[in-house]
Every structure is written in C-alpha cells, then in structure tokens.
Amino acid sequence: MSIAFQAKMSGMPGRVWQGEIFPIQIEQDPYEIEVTARGSSFHLIVGQHAYGNYICIPNWDIGTELSSLSDHFWNLQQLCNAKLNEVDACSVAYALFELSKYVDI
To answer: How far is residue 68 from each of residues 13, 17, 38, 73, measured CA to CA in Å?
Structure first.
C-alpha cells in the first residue's frame, strides 16, 4: 500500500510535483515511512518526545524537532535549517502533512 501526495513550492505558481509515501510502521509511535519525490528518497522516523515531536532521516544524517505534522510552514523551516534543500524539504513537509491524516501525533 502506498499513499500519494502533491507537493509545491510556495510563491512559485506551477511548480508542483507528485510524491509517494510507503508506510513501514504506522500503527504506533514512532512511525516509520519511506518517501519518494522528484528523484529523492527519504526514510523517515517520526515520533513524540517529552517536549514535542521529532523527525529523523537516517539516510540523510538529519534529525530535528517538528511541530504538529500538519504544520507545513514550521516543519518546512526546520527541515531547511537541518540542511535539506528547499525542494526536498517541501517534499518531506508535504509528506508529513499527508501522514497526519493517518496517525495521531
């Protein structure tokens, strides 16, 4: 089973692309998924800790705090600060937004 999503760059009309989420473990926290978009692939581990939410992207050596999964703007800024380029950060942030429809954090 996979979940399709659409990502886009804000402020750039027409810059839209498709992505796909492949759930590995979404029954309980931490959640684990694979995301592919625009030729990039991300292994995401997403969960809660004592002070909020987090994301680890082991295959990109990235780990950072998150807001709620549906908070695209804040999560996008965190992912860009964690050294993802803007396009890849958008892909991951939109994947998190889509994941928020299926999990409870």
So the answer is: 26, 23, 24, 11
C-alpha pair distances (Å), 84 with each of 1, 28, 29, 58, 88: 27, 26, 24, 13, 6
Q: Is 78 helix (H, G, I), strand (E, B) or coil?
A: helix
Phi-psi domain of 80 (left: phi exceeds 0; alpha: psi -120 through 50; beta: other): alpha
> Which tens digit of pLDDT belongs to each residue from 29-49?
999 999 999 999 999 999 999
Tokens linked to 58: 């082991």
Q: Is 43 within 8 Å of 25 (Cβ atoms)?
A: no
Answer whether 7's CB lies under 8 Å from 22's CB. no
- Strand order of the β-sheet with 31-37 is 3-8, 16-25, 31-37, 40-49, 52-57, 62-66
CA distance 93 to 64: 13
**DSSP 3-state percent helix, strand, coil across the chain (nearest 5):** 25, 40, 30
Q: What is the pTM of this model?
A: 0.94
